[in-house]
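=== RUN LOG ===
request id: a7f3
mode: sequence -> structure
chains: 1
length: 137
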Amino acid sequence: MSAKDKNIKGDSYTRFIGCQLPLCNTQFGYFNPSYKTVDQITSNLKNLILTQKGSRPMQPMFGTSIYKILFEQVDEQYLREYVLSDIKNAVSIWLPIVIIKDITLQILENIIEFNIVYVVNLATEEGKEREFTLSIK
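=== RESULT ===
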């Protein structure tokens, strides 16, 4: 968890524990800081899903292969099963603290939208479900 501390002026603030996605210009620069563990886990989950396998040096198995199949001529059911299993496998390896409860896919003309419901296995969370939506164009 984040810890309270004092800066040079004596004002209290909370320590940053990571960067939130998407990267955008804030008062802290382009890396919007996260203060809570659960917020950082959400950013880590988005990062894991949106990273292509093989794109990280020294960690070629990090990420998912969903971009590989997006433009293939496959039916919607196969695409749905492939994406769901790929995300669940990656999360079980790289973020074992996250338990995926449900993933729904909505496939539109040029957009695939994921709605992911998950639980963070932390003592402070006590089984609270969290949810976010990702769109891939």
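=== NOTES ===
The beta strands are 4-6, 12-14, 18-19, 33-34, 98-107, 112-120, 129-136.
The longest strand covers residues 98-107.
=== END ===
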